[in-house]
Amino acid sequence: MPEILEVEAYRRLAERVVGRTVVAVDTPDNRILRGGLDGSAFDQALTGRRLMAARRVGKVLLLDSGGPTLGLRFGMTGRLLVDGRAAIEYLEWGGRRADPAWERFSLHFRSGGRLWIDDPRRLGSVELDPDLSALGPDALSLSLQELRGALTGGQGPLKARLLDQKRVAGLGNLLVDEVLWRSGLSPLRLAGSIVDDEVRRLHRTIRRTLDQMGRRGGSHTGDLFEQRGHGGSCPRDGVALQRVTVGGRTSWWCPRHQA
DNA sequence: ATTGTGGCCTGCCCGC
DNA sequence: TGCGGGCAGGCCACAA
């Protein structure tokens, strides 16, 4: 599903439309439109605008227009396509095929071509000038100090904390499971119990994991991924992985080396 | 205020 | 072969 790595790939793809001018906005599904606006409001706000930049904050893709900024969220099954090209061809848990019925939002450009969102489950959304003030520091540039801050105060399990977009923006279920597995930290540990040594290890692991998996092609390319599921075993030491729900998400972890 | 839970939404896979 | 149940999780509204 789209976590920070996929959305960053979407952002790079979206750079292809920077400089283009919007001539029409298609909103075949107004259920994904936010801010109480209908399709014509999006059309009115964006038609005639030239796109100035493609940015990303956490899992949100932002297209600056000189007027309103268009914010795109991809939920679990949203893909971005530009001129018929997908940033991520295969999306875990996404549709197994391309279906025009899954097109939810589309920008047409004066110079030709278009950008659109394909989202079978409609868990994504589109918004003008989204409020991003509640988002925590971005996971791709997360400093040690920022991670320390994210883990400080309050209570709750480590994994829930890392998934909380107000604490750290961009990490999703697969990335957090992979990072905790590599760090040897249990998803159930209380965030406040993580000592400084472990915070440093976690920080190093986040950086290395995002870098490596970004090059491999997305959040489904972790070393743990293939073993997620019943009957799966730890790739490191072979014992059966345990399944537990943390932060409302299915979590797979190794009871042998994650403590 | 923070933390937890349920629901949204639909494709896909499995077992009968 | 078709069908129904379970599952996937990002995000939000809502409850405690």
How would you characterize the overall build of this protein?
The structure is a single chain. The protein is an alpha+beta fold and 259 residues long. It has 2 domains: 4-128, MutM-like, N-terminal (N-terminal domain of MutM-like DNA repair proteins, Alpha-Beta Barrel); 139-253, Helicase, Ruva Protein, domain 3. Helices cover 25% and strands 20% of the residues. It contains 6 helices and 11 strands. It has helices at 4-14, 39-46, 144-151, 158-163, 173-183, 196-216, and strands at residues 22-26, 53-57, 60-64, 70-73, 79-82, 85-86, 103-109, 114-118, 125-128, 242-246, 249-253. Strands 1-7-8-5-6 form a 5-stranded antiparallel sheet, with helices on one face. Strand 3 and strand 4 form a beta hairpin. The chain is elongated, with a radius of gyration of 19 Å. The two termini are 27 Å apart. The model has no long low-confidence stretch (mean pLDDT 94). It binds a DNA duplex (16 and 16 nucleotides) through residues 1-3, 31, 59, 73-78, 92-96, 119-125, 153-156, 160, 163-165, 172-174, 247-250.
CATH architecture of the largest domain: Alpha-Beta Barrel
Q: Which topology of the largest domain does CATH recognise?
A: N-terminal domain of MutM-like DNA repair proteins
Tell me how many strands there are: 11
Secondary-structure content class: alpha+beta
Element order, helices and strands? HEHEEEEEEEEHHHHEE
Number of helices: 6
Number of domains: 2
Work out the radius of gyration.
19 Å
